[in-house]
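Example 3.2
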Amino acid sequence: MQHSNDATRGTDQTSGHFWRKVSVSYNQFINQSNSVNSSRENYSPLPERSTESLKGAWGRRLQKAVGKFAGIVQTNPPSSGEKKDDQSMDLYYSRMREMYADRVKKMKNMPKRFGDMMAAY
């Protein structure tokens, strides 16, 4: 979202420029995650990925899963009380992840759990 909502560039950016920014941010985050988690016993460092690798992963796996999850969130908005603090929003998104997992059980080529995609976070 950070790069697709870039106010200085707006929608006037090339695909190459967008994906280069995504790649730089992703690799910075991966390096930070590796640094924070390096002392964990069974932690395997995550590799940096190229721009083309990230772009391919988005089109092959993530775009469909993100679209599905966004649709679930859009049709099940949080109640007003759930927007007040982080703890209640954590519960809300936990429910949304459960709904996602339930709906994609029988779908092919869809990540079944967010944990697999979010291991670095």
